[in-house]
Design goal:
By secondary structure, this protein is α+β, with helices and mostly antiparallel strands. It has one domain. The strands form 2 sheets. A 4-stranded antiparallel β-sheet has the order 2-1-5-6. The chain has a two-stranded antiparallel ribbon with strand order 3-4. A hairpin with a 5-residue loop joins strand 1 and strand 2. Helix 5 packs antiparallel against helix 6.
Length: 227
């Protein structure tokens, strides 16, 4: 069977890096023979708000997946131009961008597919992955899928769902900030670190401007009586 997702990065010189992602029971499949590096250990620069215990989780779920999927060789400079092709079960995407932005999109998918308590709410976004999405696209997908998730759990009447989403992004912001320390101890290329910085910027914007940004989208929905 083909992989569930494939990221292919190609430099202008034709150097290509293919990163396939296969899922088993909605989790990234990692072969038993894979030996995780030391920086994937849960206690290596563990996030300040991580609720996991080293007795039950030897490795950080996100770090383990990143260690398996990212190449060991240096990926190049952050602003190196690459053509990124993303194959999903539904369609193929192709765009020329910077390496850090391509990796930021890949990291977002890996985080959503990882069994981290702070990223589990992103799992529906992985199912409907939109590579290299804009800030507005991320806002619409995140808010709508989260509200749908709350509706399916019959929780919309019991709490303020947007306040809960805001709290989730606050935790995600802290995760991204802490995770840059973990990668600094490993990678020679600055692109993976700056990719996380981009994710951190997105998380901060979602946290600070959620209500304001949603209000700015209100005119798109208009009054259905005018349709």
């Amino acid at each position: 069977m083909p992989p569930d997702y494939v990221y292919t990065l190609t430099t202008p010189e034709g150097v290509q890096q293919r990163i396939p992602i296969e899922l088993v029971d909605d989790a990234i499949a990692i072969p038993d023979r894979f030996s995780p590096p030391a920086w994937a250990a849960l206690t290596y620069h563990q996030c300040s708000h991580c609720p996991l215990d080293k007795e039950t989780h030897r490795y950080c779920p996100i770090a383990l997946n990143l260690a398996y999927l990212l190449p060991e060789s240096a990926l190049g400079d952050s602003f190196q131009t690459v053509t990124v092709e993303v194959d999903t079960p539904q369609r193929q995407y192709r765009q020329t961008t910077t390496l850090q932005r391509a990796l930021s999109s890949l990291f977002g998918l890996i985080c959503a597919l990882s069994d981290c308590p702070h990223t589990r709410f992103l799992r529906p976004m992985a199912r409907f992955h939109l590579p290299l999405s804009s800030a507005s696209e991320t806002l619409v997908r995140s808010a709508s899928l989260f509200l749908l998730q709350q509706h399916m759990a019959d929780r919309l009447d019991s709490q303020d769902p947007l306040a809960e989403l805001n709290a989730r992004y606050t935790a995600l912001n802290e995760l991204n900030r802490c995770f840059t320390r973990r990668l600094r101890g490993k990678r020679t290329s600055d692109a993976p670190i700056n990719a996380l910085v981009l994710l951190n910027v997105t998380a901060r914007e979602m946290h600070w401007n959620l209500e304001e940004e949603l209000a700015s989208l209100a005119p798109l929905f208009g009054n259905d009586s005018d349709a």
